[in-house]
Amino acid sequence: MLGEHLRAGPWKAQRWKTGQSVSFYRERVPSLILQCPRRYQEACLVPTCLETSCPALQTGPVAAWNSSFLSPETMLLSLLWLGLTLLGALQTQAQRPTPDLIPAPPLLRVPLQPDFQHDKFQGKWYVVGLGGNAVSKEEQGQFKMYATTYELKEDDSYNVTSTLLKNEDCYHWIRTFVPSFLPGQFNLGNIKSFPDLHSYTVRVAATNYNQFAIVFFKKVTKNQEYFKTTLYGRTKELTTELKERFVRFAKSLGLTDDHIIFSVPVDQCIDDA
Predict the structure, then answer these.
(1) Closest to 4 in 3D by CA, of 30, 39, 52
(2) Cα–Cα distance between 135 and 130 in angstroms, integer?
(3) Whether 268 contacts 145, CB under 8 Å
(4) φ and ψ at 50, to 5 degrees?
(5) What's the pTM value of the predicted model, to 2 decimals?
(6) Which helix (H) or strand (E) holds 246?
(7) String of b and e for 95-109 (b: at least 16 CB within 10 Å)?
(8) Rounded-to-10 torsion of CA 238, 241, 242, 248
(9) What confidence tens digit (pLDDT) does each residue in 124-170 have?
(10) Helix, coil or strand: residue 177
(11) Number of helices and strands in the chain (H, E)
């Protein structure tokens, strides 16, 4: 799916299992395409996914960089194989039919928390529920809970860090949300670094700051509009009433039950975030 193939962008260096930093890889293959697992929709909707299970990293690039320790003939063959592999992946993606997605609602249809308080919203939130036009009910039971922390800066923007557990390892991705002219609405920082991304909007639809928050995300690319809504909780468990309120809100955006899931609580990684 096009929405699950995002180009590498600027981020703080994190460590891969190979021992090299993300910046090490990006500097050598700037157009490297990273593939994020669909169950982590927040990563896939943000063009800074840090994912060590990306097929491109496990095969072509790693093989090519490791070839620096091989003979010149082997290095040339490895680089040729890398080029053919990436070309084949791009051709396959281009030939893949565009999925029929539920249209994203206009932002004016999405509520905005009145008198939004930046300082009260900061801190750690657990992702309890998720709904979106690229989310499938088939992922119910496989979608592990992760944590997202909002760190308020002096200009009222947020440094946003998400932490998740995968294959017994902790993964992090970092981005910046910059305030717009409306309190409670934000745009992705440094968006010019992503040529295929036209806009990325975050809108806090409802929150009481100390218990829950419902947040709307919309990403517009050259070919598609993706949107999702997230149910945040200050704790891992929320009341049935709040979950039902989230489902009603998701359906008001045009989503169906087939596009709404709830996470499985975990302890590793996210408790230390």
Answers:
(1) 39
(2) 8
(3) no
(4) -105, 105
(5) 0.67
(6) helix 240-252
(7) eeeeeebbebbebee
(8) 140
(9) 999 999 999 999 998 888 899 999 999 999 999 999 999 999 888 99
(10) strand
(11) 7, 11
Query: What's the mean per-residue pLDDT of the chain?
Result: 75
Q: What's the distance, CA 220 to chain centroid? A: 14
Residue for token pair 């070839």: 67
Rounded Cα–Cα distance for residues 4 and 215 (Å): 20
pLDDT band (50, 70, 90) for residue 71:
low
pLDDT digits (tens, 9 = 90+) for 139-148: 888 899 999 9
Task: Name the amino acid, one letter, at 103.
Answer: P
Other Cβ atoms less than 10 A from the Cβ of 255: the count is 21
Look up tokens 């700051």; give the residue: 209
Tokens of 223: 């070919």
Tabulate helix, strand, coil % of the chain (nearest 5): 30, 30, 40
